[in-house]
Amino acid sequence: MRSDLFLVPGPVGEQRMTGKTLVMIDILRASTTICQALKSGARAIIPVVEPGEATEMRSKIGVDITVLGGERKGIKIDGFDLGNSPLEYTEDKVKGKTVVLTTSNGTRGYNRAALSKLLITGALVNISAVTRKVSQAGQDVVILCAGQDGDFSIEDTLCGGMLLHKLLTDAKMELELNDAAELALLLYRSNSRALRQTIARGEHGRYLTKIGFGSDVEMATEVDSIPVLPISRESRIILDEN
User: Fold this and answer.
1) Would the pLDDT of 12 be above 90?
2) Could you tell me the pLDDT band of residue 167, with boundaries at 50, 70 and 90?
3) Most buried of 109, 156, 166, 217, CB within 10 angstroms?
4) Is the pLDDT of residue 32 over 90?
5) Partners of 102 in the β-ladder
């Protein structure tokens, strides 16, 4: 089985994802927030690119049954209900509702993934559930790291490397890796005992801590703490019940 990892989403066209399992990773913080929202009982998450799209979507769906979530430069967008901190997505705020989410990095890749056969949202908090689903699917996999403002991010690459490591060791899969996947695997194996420290020292980890979201970094690095499996169907991210 072939496994291609991309350090940033920019150069990846839809044809690279066609008919494959696609794992979207943005652990700081969209992927972690999506996992937490579903754990807290959200009916679905609709990822969109721009804040204007989010408000239009809310009007179409219905104000009473939706929650607007999103950030720019890490800070909650004016007029939105929630930002992008997973700690905000509690049952009392999202249970039974559809979350329309727009973030600086993590939600931008979903609209390009329509041709993938299976689309999974992956993070450290649900890494074992993602591993099982990818293994069960048994098809070529693309791991797409959201990065940070178009640049490499250490946290997403580490998570991708951990997924590859678990597919190779836990699931006993034979993988043909591209060079970026080999790099991610090496990065993870070199830092597997210091994931939180490495991510906290990274550029985005430092920035979030500086603006008051250090607790989000801690939450996002708690491996398997939110063992849900978010999959996408008809442009909505929902819980996989299988």
Assistant:
1) no
2) very high
3) 156
4) yes
5) 70
CATH code: domain 2-237 is 3.90.1560.10
Q: Starting at the edge strand that comes first in sequence, how are the strands of the sheet with 98-102 ordered? A: 75-76, 66-72, 98-102, 44-47, 236-239, 230-233, 118-122, 21-25, 141-145, 2-6, 176-177
Q: What is the pTM of this model?
A: 0.97
- Beta-strand ranges (E) seen in 123-210 are 141-145, 176-177
Question: Alpha-carbon distance 95 to 129, whole Å?
Answer: 22
Nearest-angstrom CA–CA distance, 139 and 153 = 26
Q: Quick one: pLDDT at residue 170?
A: 97
Helices 127-137 & 154-169 angle (0-180, nearest 10): 50
Q: Are 69 and 100 in contact (CB under 8 A)?
A: yes
H or E stretch at 102: strand 98-102
Query: What is the average pLDDT score of the chain?
Result: 96
For 11, residues 6+ apart whose C-beta sits below 8 A from its C-beta are none
pLDDT band at 241 (very low <50, low <70, confident <90, very high): confident
Q: How far apart are CA 150 and CA 109, in angstroms?
A: 12
Q: Which residues pair with 70 in a beta bridge?
A: 102
CB 105 within 8 A of CB 92: no
83-100 pLDDT tens trace: 999 999 999 999 999 999
Residue type, 104: S
Kindly provide the b/e burial profile for residues 109-129, where b requires at least 16 CB atoms within 10 angstroms of the residue's own CB: bbebbeebebbbbbbbbbbbb
